[in-house]
Amino acid sequence: MQKPISSLRLCELAELFNLRLVGNGDTLIDGVGTLSEATGSQLSFLSNPAYRDQLNSTQAGVVIVSAKDAENCPVNALIADDPYVSYARVVQRFDPRRPIRPGLHSSATIDPTAIIGRDVHVGANAVIGPGCVIEDACSIGPGCVLMADCKLGSSSRLAANVTICEGVQIGRRTIIHPGAIIGSDGFGLAFDKNHWVKIPQIGSVQIGDDCEIGANTTIDRGAIGDTIIEDDVRLDNQIQIAHNVEVGAHTAMAAYVGISGSTKIGKYCMFGGRSGAVGHIRIADRTTVTGSSPVTKSITQPGTTWSCIIPAQPIREWNRTIVHLRKLEKLARRVLNLEKLSGK
């Protein structure tokens, strides 16, 4: 994250981010806001057509827009091929949160065998276990725990109360949000006559570069071999990734997704909120799974979209739908019998 600065002139913003400016280049911008609430010194953006009506009345100092919307912009405009992507880059210059400064808090516990790189920040009450390797410019927030033999790649950041279990390897520039747990035991059990026997989970977790893992998300360690999260994977809050799952690069998952054990997910996939997959299947590259949809079999054709959820409806309509669903088997048999009688 770049250090925020107090203000920038529009001509400087346009040059920094290779955007075309329409308007007064000397206008000073010191923050961001929504189209409906931004002030004359703030930047906003329009990417979703649902908010196009708000463009006409915006008081923003500048709006990032597409060329198509620029002619209807009543204030200064920065024209971008993709306004949302450009906004994502520009807003980093105005992040109001305090920059993280290197230093080891006096209450942190760091095992003497751990290797700590340059310009590392370790917060209050953090614990770094034996054999850990923390590369340069990492940040470890308050209350974090890194158990034995973990590796944290350069410029990665753990927010507060993150737990990294034994042997987990995390790449460079990865962000892990508060409460996430990486490398806890997977759900490995064998049933012996009248009781469960725990199967030791002897694998670990490998997370690539430039990933982001949301608050309270859990990624289980492998039973045999590792759970693998490839580069640039983005996981929202409260997601469960089971043991020995493999998630391909550039895949994104929204909140409450659950992926069962040993499933292999391709690259550039997208999972909507509350969707998921059963175990031991494969999902092809660039698959999209819509919200609340469970995937129950392998998907072999790349680039397809899958959905299997009935949207909410008034309870009386739903009750009638259930009655009809319960009659489907009888109806199907009647259709088959009619086809036989008609010679089809």
Summarize the structure.
The protein is an alpha/beta fold and 344 residues long. It folds into three domains: 8-94, MurE/MurF, N-terminal domain (Udp-n-acetylmuramoylalanyl-d-glutamate--2,6- Diaminopimelate Ligase, Chain: A, domain 1); 103-306, Hexapeptide repeat proteins (UDP N-Acetylglucosamine Acyltransferase, domain 1, 3 Solenoid), CATH 2.160.10.10; 314-344.
Topology of helices and strands:
Elements: E1 8-9, H1 10-16, E2 20-22, E3 28-29, E4 31-32, E5 42-45, H2 52-55, E6 62-65, H3 67-70, E7 76-79, H4 83-90, E8 103-104, E9 109-110, E10 115-116, E11 121-122, E12 127-128, E13 133-134, E14 139-140, E15 145-146, E16 151-152, E17 157-158, E18 163-164, E19 169-170, E20 175-176, E21 181-184, E22 189-192, E23 195-198, E24 205-207, E25 212-213, E26 218-220, E27 227-229, E28 234-235, E29 240-241, E30 246-247, E31 252-253, E32 258-259, E33 264-265, E34 270-271, E35 276-277, E36 282-283, E37 288-289, E38 294-295, E39 305-306, H5 315-326, H6 328-342
Parallel strand pairs: 4-5, 5-6, 6-7, 8-11, 9-12, 10-13, 11-14, 12-15, 13-16, 14-17, 15-18, 16-19, 17-20, 18-21, 19-24, 20-25, 21-26, 24-27, 25-28, 26-29, 27-30, 28-31, 29-32, 30-33, 31-34, 32-35, 33-36, 34-37, 35-38, 37-39
Antiparallel strand pairs: 1-3, 2-7, 22-23
